[in-house]
User: What shape does this take?
Amino acid sequence: MIHVVTGAQWGDEGKGKIVDLFSQKSDITVRFHGGNNAGHTVINSYGTFPLHLVPSGVFTKKGITCITSGVVLDLEVLTAEIAMLEKVLSNLRKRLLISPRCHIILPYHKLLDRLYEEAKGKSKTGTTGRGIGPVYADKVSYQGIRLNDFQDVNRLREKLEIALSIKNKIIRAFGESPLDVEEILQEQMVHYNKIRDMVREPMSLLFDAYKKKKTILYEGAQGMFLDNDWGTYPFVTASSTVAGSITASSGVPAQYINRVTGVTKAYTTRVGSGPFPTELSDTVGEKLRAVGKEYGATTGRPRRCGWFDAELVRFASKVNGFTDLAITKIDVLDSFETIKICTGYTLKGKRVSYENLDAYSLAEVRGIYKVMKGWKTPLGDIKKYALLPKEAKVYLLELEKQTGTKVLTISVGPNRNQTLYR
Ligand code: GDP
Ligand code: IMO
Ligand code: MG
Assistant: This one.
């Protein structure tokens, strides 16, 4: 059985928490796209971990974890994360597989990310600065360097020489110092040597596991509206964040997908630039940020906050094929007198839908809101759905109705055990 978990908003929905939870009943967990622009927070009996590359489902005794070809790797970050995890998971090395097809983020990708952002000025995307756009650009324009290039140091050197012969021209034009092939090569080989025993294509393992009726959990990064095709382009990330992209990234057939869980906060947040129809630039937004501790797990930037946007999650549900939703951080709304849900948009007085809007017209829409009564009770210690206050149940049912998607999982706090099931 293949179970995919993806973000239904602009990232940071709590995918790490939900994947850690679901992984307890899965045999294999897979990260399938993005890089260390992701920051997935896991809090369980092992401790608190902000994971950037290793799947959040790693905290099991025997489960296999895989990083498949769609993921881009900063080897310094990966090796540091593995070293950190090995302190609590002694057998990690034996159960982590990293696809040799993964592309590598190199120093020039990070430098170019910064230079492009600076050049765009106030139109910048607000990237995480991790080199994500430039590394995926190299991938699709046949200039990338993959893990399997590290098997032959001469081939790697040759590829780096070609890459730098192009990149250094751009870097010099921006007035920066050119980068040195040997320096990059030596540094990258040191990192590679720390992980080389884990570099093995996971495709057959995943294929066979599916045939043996094992449960394979796929962990999405970012979220629907950061998707390169369907998000608020150009205020997006470079990869495909939707559930269907697991097939390209890990080589499993599309018809194998059984369940797709969309993770969404009970309100909305966004980091970086771009339109955000339900954003609250007032004390209500500040309260959401303060109570929800809405600061980026990767960059520490304050997250922009706003009400739940059902127009967006409805769209995300269509494109991902959500079979169910996991609603997180509902406890953040505990002290609100009233809570609003955006049910749709108007533009110049006419009803419009996300599907037909670009990022610039989305910035102009007005939300249509339904006002809900708050429950004014702390939810963090509640152990059963049936025990939720009536107003919280009414709120969840309204989210379900507005998004057209069944709510099966409700998260009332950051810990693994602060979860309710319907
Ligand atoms: P991800 O990128 O989707 O994995 O999400 P992040 O980890 O970046 O951000 C989610 C934040 O919310 C983390 O700090 C989590 O520990 C926290 N969190 C997750 N679920 C809940 C919840 O139900 N309630 C509260 N209060 N915090 C939560
Ligand atoms: P997780 O997996 C929230 C945003 C950046 C920026 C845009 C492009 O933790 O949900 P990039 O560095 O990818 O080129 O930046 O995408 N972004 C995220 N926002 N959560 C993330 O990941 C994000 N990954 C990228 O803030 O707006
Ligand atoms: Mg995050």
In short: The CA atoms of residues 164 and 334 lie 53 Å apart. The longest helix spans residues 153-173. The pocket of guanosine-5'-diphosphate (ligand 1) is lined by residues 7, 11-17, 39-41, 43, 297, 328-329, 331-332, 411-414 (CB under 6 Å). The chain has three domains: 2-101+199-261, 103-195, 265-421.
